[in-house]
Amino acid sequence: KNMKICHISTVHSRYDVRIFFKECVSLAKNYKEVHLIIADGLGDETKNNVIIHDLGKPKTRKDRFLKFSKLALSKAKEIQADVYHLHDPELLRIALKLQKFGAKIIYDSHEDLPRQILNKTYIPKYLRKLISRIIENYENKISKKINGIAAATPHIRDRFLKINKNTVDINNFPIIEDIKFNSDWENRELAIGYIGGIFKTRGIFETLDAINNTDIKLHLAGNFSHSQLETECKSHPAWKQVEFHGYLDRNGVNELLKKVRLGMVILEATPSYIVSLPIKMFEYMAAGLPVVASNFPLWKSIIDENKCGICVDQTNHEEIRNKLLALISNDDKLIEMGKNGRKAVELTYNWEVEEKKLVEFYKNLNN
């Protein structure tokens, strides 16, 4: 109860849902003092009993990497926490330095970074395997020596368990009370919805191709990964069927999910995506919205077991179109799938379950 905890990220925003609203706020309910070191230039504050320290905003990625890790180390030493919880791979370089002061160190692995590197288009293709291997070796080297790993998915957990036995999956499932369950189907549009970052690898063109020349509308919420992608999407013939909302807050997301009949999560079969647990899928389920998902074994097992949606070949827009048209007007089936999805979230796929795992993980640090 009296343990002083400090989370650190120089990459993520201060109100990052996983870091702040889930982990920090949950720990602040169970421990006396929780700090968060961040780098966004918005100043210091205390919110939801979490003390936020701002390092200022990096001008460039290089500036962040070279300068802000040192600033984070300096601020962390000033706080004198019992536990430091690091959220960025680049912060591993300060992990052992903090450990020398007698603190416990946790690394929060949000993504399978070595596998992600293999699909980074800004890295020359001939260098990706080499960089991936270097990063994996470095992550493994430091992770062996620290006190625990909090992994965002079971796949990442299994990777780190081989090198650090004190590894647990803290899944990024939704906070139930944040998502409004809606059982009103009479007022829903003949529409599908997508919330989240808009990337080429997340099925935007396959979705547009699927609804083209149909009566189906797409409610699209999120930010485009770059301006060129936005231009390409807006020149697609199906864009006239799109209502683009941009970034929405939680209330806006809840309002969008009340309007549509299906939630889309058709991602490309990249090494990192096929073993991921995208929060948007579980947010759709929590809202009572059936899911249309890529036909990955992990996702298919969840959707089939809970009877809460359908899986499609994410590369085949004709199959996606046919399955959408067959289901989107079948209210009885949609309502049944929506209730099943909400029930699955209430029982299993929710932050309240993960919060207990997080607190137990912290308790066991001293054992």
Tally of helical segments: 14
Sequence of secondary-structure elements: EHEEEHEHEHHEHEEHEHEHEHEHEHHH
Name the strands of the widest sheet in spatial order: 3-4-2-1-5-6-7-8
Query: What integer is the average pLDDT?
Result: 94
Tell me how many strands there are.
14
Proportion of residues in extended strands: 15-25%
Structural class: alpha/beta
Query: What profile does the largest beta sheet have?
Result: 8 strands, mixed
Radius of gyration: 21 Å
Percent range of helical residues: 40-55%
Termini separation: 15 Å
Overall geometric form: globular
Low-confidence stretches: none
Notes on the structure:
- The protein has 367 residues and is an alpha/beta fold.
- Helices cover 42% and strands 17% of the residues.
- The protein has an 8-stranded mixed beta sheet, with helices on both faces. A 6-stranded parallel beta sheet has the order 11-10-9-12-13-14, sandwiched between helices.
- Helix 1 (17-28) crosses helix 14 (351-363), helix 7 packs across helix 12 (317-327) and helix 10 (279-286) packs across helix 13.
- The mean pLDDT is 94.
Features:
single chain, 367 residues, eight-stranded mixed sheet
In terms of topology, how is this protein built?
Layout: E1 4-8, H1 17-28, E2 33-38, E3 45-47, E4 50-54, H2 61-79, E5 83-86, H3 95-99, E6 104-109, H4 113-117, H5 125-143, E7 148-151, H6 154-161, E8 167-169, E9 191-195, H7 204-211, E10 217-221, H8 227-234, E11 242-246, H9 250-259, E12 262-265, H10 279-286, E13 291-294, H11 297-306, E14 309-312, H12 317-327, H13 331-347, H14 351-363
Parallel strand pairs: 1-2, 1-5, 2-4, 5-6, 6-7, 7-8, 9-10, 9-12, 10-11, 12-13, 13-14
Antiparallel strand pairs: 3-4
Helix pairs in contact: 1-14, 7-12, 10-13
